[in-house]
Write a structure and sequence with these properties.
Elements (H helix, E strand, L loop, with lengths): L1 E2 L3 H7 E7 H5 L9 E6 L11 E2 L2 E3 L5 E5 H9 L3 H8 L3 E4 L1 H8 L1 H4 L3 H24 L4 H20 L10 H8 L5 H18 L11 H19 L1
Parallel strand pairs: 1-4, 3-6
Antiparallel strand pairs: 2-3, 2-7, 5-6
Helix pairs in contact: 3-11, 7-8, 8-9, 8-10
Length: about 230
């Protein structure tokens, strides 16, 4: 059983909040939303009862989502693209000392698992896009653009060991995809090229085979332990 948290409870415990989405990717325009994602760290005592606190919290701002720090650690170790982008976004709005520790911990989350995670996600989503074409004659081009962007970022991460959110020189071409101005066959060819590159680069990637789970767990345990000492 879980119980919802109030906005104030989450605000008081937020250790990191960043801007992601189009503004962090270098794809924004005047009409773009501001997508905020964050991390809150509840005290250990919050988990002692039968009803556990919620792992995530929406709002109160539009396009604002925050996750409890343990959930972030679990998803980060699984190479979840959304969480990795939160930990690497250069657009930081809130960062407490614990948030700074979490940001410094980001290398421990990175491993060659990212290739499998990114490729499986992209494959599944491209399948949905193709079903959209079969139903209505066109995919949701905005989603397709972000799949190409995700594959590009994942490929760079595998090749260099660094996750870079800004799309750089690919901006115009990606925006053309978003506008539906790139033929589907060309999009598929771009996707196939990115998949092939990532697969070819994986054996020589500077990333370790596995994330440093022990280091992440040690840090999370220390966060819980410190919350008890601070309460005392």
């Amino acid at each position: 059983m879980q119980h919802a948290l109030t906005d104030q409870q989450v605000d008081d415990r937020t250790i990191l909040q960043v801007v992601v989405g189009s503004r962090a990717f270098g794809l924004s325009d005047a009409s773009s939303d501001t997508d905020r994602r964050g991390v809150y760290a509840l005290p250990a005592s919050a988990f002692w009862g039968l009803r556990k606190p919620a792992w995530h919290h929406d709002g109160p701002l539009a396009e604002q989502v925050r996750w409890e720090v343990e959930r972030v650690c679990v998803l980060g170790l699984a190479a979840n693209p959304t969480v990795l982008e939160v930990l690497h976004s250069p657009l930081v709005e809130t960062c407490t000392p614990l948030g700074a520790e979490l940001r410094a911990l980001t290398p421990a989350f990175l491993s060659r698992r990212v290739a499998d995670t990114y490729l499986r996600y992209a494959t599944a989503q491209f399948g949905k896009a193709e079903r959209g074409i079969a139903r209505s004659g066109a995919p949701i081009w905005r989603h397709v653009m972000h799949l190409i962007r995700l594959l590009t970022a994942g490929g760079h991460l595998v090749r260099t060991g660094r996750l870079v959110l800004d799309v750089g020189a690919d901006r115009d071409r990606l925006l053309a995809v978003k506008a539906g101005a790139v033929p589907w066959d060309d999009v598929v060819a771009w996707r196939d090229l990115l998949v092939a590159r990532m697969t070819a680069d994986l054996p020589t990637s500077p990333l370790p085979d596995r994330p440093d789970e022990a280091r992440v767990e040690q840090w999370l345990t220390s966060v819980r332990d410190r919350s008890l000492r601070w309460a005392a």
